[in-house]
């Protein structure tokens, strides 16, 4: 039974593409490179639910939104999360197109 039919994105980074896993920023840095997001003025937003992932995102120079799943708010903040949410249902796109979007976050 097919539940979701989601096309594979043009840029898709998995553990097979990197030597070191999180908390190494290698995966996020490779993603930035393959997306052409390499300039110092380019902003990257990472959503993570693990301490190692938060550390990887911050080490890659991203703004990190942590989602409480396995780890507490305190652990995610201590790892460097810029924002913490109770779930992805707390994210809304309030304006956007293919080049830029505005998000609204219900931060706890």
Q: Can you describe this structure?
A:
The protein is an alpha/beta fold and 108 residues long. It has a single domain (15-105), classed as 3-Layer(aba) Sandwich (Rossmann fold). Helices cover 23% and strands 21% of the residues. It contains three helices and five strands; from the N terminus they run αβαβαβββ. The strands form two sheets. Strands 1-2-3 form a three-stranded parallel sheet. Strands 4-5 form a two-stranded antiparallel sheet. The longest helix has 10 residues, at 26-35. The chain is globular and about 35 Å long. It starts with 25 loop residues before the first helix and ends with a strand.
Strand content: 15-25%
How many strands?
A: 5
CATH H-level name... which superfamily? HAD superfamily/HAD-like
Tell me which CATH architecture applies here: 3-Layer(aba) Sandwich
Distance between the termini: 38 Å
* Major sheet details: 3 strands, parallel
**Largest beta sheet: strand ordering:** 1-2-3
Morphology call? globular
Fraction of residues in helix: 10-25%
Q: Quick check: average pLDDT?
A: 89
Look up the CATH topology.
Rossmann fold
Element pattern in H and E: HEHEHEEE
Number of helices: 3
Short description:
This protein is of the alpha/beta class and 108 residues long.
């Amino acid at each position: 039974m097919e539940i979701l039919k989601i096309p594979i994105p043009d840029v898709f980074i998995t553990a097979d593409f990197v030597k070191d896993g999180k908390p190494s920023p290698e995966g996020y840095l490779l993603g930035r490179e393959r997306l052409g997001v390499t300039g110092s003025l380019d902003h990257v937003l990472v959503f993570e639910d693990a301490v190692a992932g938060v550390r990887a995102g911050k080490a890659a120079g991203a703004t990190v939104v942590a989602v409480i799943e396995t780890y507490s708010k305190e652990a995610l903040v201590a790892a460097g999360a810029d924002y913490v949410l109770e779930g992805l249902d707390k994210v809304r796109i309030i304006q956007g197109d293919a080049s830029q979007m505005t998000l609204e976050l219900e931060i706890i």
